[in-house]
């Protein structure tokens, strides 16, 4: 029997739960150079969509850590994944988020990842920075740099604003209506911008550089704009932590 949560519990977005997880496993391996013996960190692990395929790929010398702000997802993963795969661990992060965790106790801009320095080979964030504001994202970048090993890789998804995507937005040819303009980013909801955030690509590129990462070109732009050529729904950036940091 497939290890898939009940449909009514899935809060990580539309689409085929199993297919999306398998697609990203392929991206992790082919773009992120993920090895079976890697130590992996899943930031915003949800209800295990990305973790479940990894249980069939990571070997006994590899390991997985995931955290999320939604307690229901963490509870399900602990009960259904960790019990079968002891090298897969999940924990709740009590971070405030207007959309997903209004009762949190820590601001994302102050949150310290509960892991040692340089303890992971590979880190990924799928649809996390699409729900975070600049100050919070800046802190997460700093923490990713801290816990990732030298020459380790990270894979992160975004909604990126550039010349092409601005044209699609102006023509109303996007799945997200980023109509509200802020300093360096756009949002779908003026009163709750964390519901969906798109960042200027130049700002994101500068953040990678500031925090000691080299982007592995090309950026893989997504189908959220009505492109004819795309890899996934959101834009994907793979980067490597510089060995000198």
How are the SSEs placed, and which strands pair?
Blueprint: H1 17-30, E1 39-43, H2 51-54, E2 63-68, H3 71-82, E3 88-92, E4 120-125, H4 134-147, E5 148-158, E6 160-161, H5 163-170, E7 180-181, E8 185-187, E9 197-200, H6 201-210, E10 213-215, E11 235-241
Parallel strand pairs: 1-2, 1-4, 2-3, 4-5, 6-9
Antiparallel strand pairs: 5-11, 7-8, 8-9, 10-11
Description:
- The protein has one domain (22-241): Rossmann fold (3-Layer(aba) Sandwich).
- Strands 3-2-1-4-5-11-10 form a seven-stranded mixed β-sheet, with helices on both faces.
- The protein has 245 residues and is α/β, with parallel strands linked by helices.
- Strand 2, helix 3 and strand 3 form a beta-alpha-beta unit.
- The termini are far apart.
- The protein is globular, with a radius of gyration of 17 Å.
- It has six helices and eleven strands.
- It has helices spanning 17-30, 51-54, 71-82, 134-147, 163-170, 201-210; strands at residues 39-43, 63-68, 88-92, 120-125, 148-158, 160-161, 180-181, 185-187, 197-200, 213-215, 235-241.
- It is 25% helix and 22% strand.
């Amino acid at each position: 029997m497939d290890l898939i949560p009940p449909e009514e519990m899935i809060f990580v977005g539309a689409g085929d739960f199993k297919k999306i997880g398998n697609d990203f496993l392929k991206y992790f391996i082919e773009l992120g150079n993920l090895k079976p013996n890697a130590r992996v960190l899943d930031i915003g692990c949800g209800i295990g969509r990305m973790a479940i395929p990894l249980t069939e790929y990571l070997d006994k010398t590899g390991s997985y850590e995931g955290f999320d702000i939604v307690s229901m997802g963490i509870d399900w993963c602990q009960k259904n994944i960790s019990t079968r795969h002891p090298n897969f661990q999940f924990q709740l992060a009590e971070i405030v988020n207007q959309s997903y965790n209004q009762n949190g106790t820590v601001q994302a801009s102050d949150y310290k990842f509960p892991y040692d320095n340089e303890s992971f080979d590979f880190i990924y964030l799928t649809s996390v920075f699409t729900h975070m504001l600049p100050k919070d994202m800046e802190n997460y970048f700093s923490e990713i740099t801290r816990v990732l090993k030298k020459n380790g890789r990270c894979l992160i998804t975004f909604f990126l604003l550039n010349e092409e995507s601005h044209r699609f937005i102006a023509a109303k040819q996007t799945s997200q209506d980023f109509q509200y303009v802020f300093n360096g980013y756009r949002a779908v909801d003026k009163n709750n911008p964390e519901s969906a955030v798109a960042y200027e690509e130049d700002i994101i590129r500068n953040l990678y550089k500031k925090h000691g990462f080299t982007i592995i070109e090309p950026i893989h732009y997504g189908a959220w704009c009505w492109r004819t050529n795309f890899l996934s729904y959101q834009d994907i950036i793979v980067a490597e932590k510089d060995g000198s940091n």
